[in-house]
Design a protein that fits this description.
single chain; 162 residues; alpha/beta; TIM Barrel; three-stranded parallel sheet; 34% helix
């Protein structure tokens, strides 16, 4: 069995490289890159910068297991507001784009967020609607999507390497 851990677990005052070194020394095989949760991997990170992240991961003797994000808590695919849903789709698109650059075929998506204002039945229907194929042909890749369980305690993307 191969193990990976999220780069969002790297101490905030450490560099990405320091974190990768500790991850490798701790016996992990890979790292989850968390889009938007760490300073080195944001929605504004360019493709060239993402390629540089991949080189750093590989230089540390690791692989990228998947691309995760916490951005869906603020911009859920199940939001009532169409602009929020549009932003959520853009996040998923960027996850797919970066997963291809990073050499992984797995992303983690928080598909829906049930709140007092947005009940389960609405969230469920919007989640079904959001599972349509991506509009851009380039995004119809081999990326696999992991959707967390309802308690969000764990969800693991299934990629070819993990």
């Amino acid at each position: 069995m191969k193990k990976s851990i999220g780069d969002n677990m790297i101490p905030k005052d450490w560099s990405f490289e320091q974190g990768l070194e500790l991850i490798k020394k701790s016996g992990y095989d890979g790292v989850e890159l968390w889009l938007g949760d760490v300073p080195w991997f944001q929605m504004s990170t360019t493709d060239a910068q993402v390629e540089a992240l991949r080189r750093k991961v590989e230089s540390a003797g690791l692989v990228v297991s998947n691309v995760s994000t916490g951005l869906h808590w603020e911009s859920p695919l199940s939001a009532r507001d169409p602009k929020t849903r549009e932003q959520a789709l853009r996040i998923v698109e960027r996850q797919i784009e970066t997963s291809q650059i990073l050499g992984t075929n797995a992303i983690l998506v928080v598909a829906g967020l049930v709140t007092e204002e947005v009940p389960y039945n609405e969230v469920y229907q919007r989640c079904l609607d959001a599972r349509q194929p991506p509009p851009k042909p380039a995004l119809r890749s081999a990326a696999r999507t992991a959707i967390p369980s309802s308690d969000s305690s764990s969800a693991h993307a299934s990629s070819g390497r993990f």
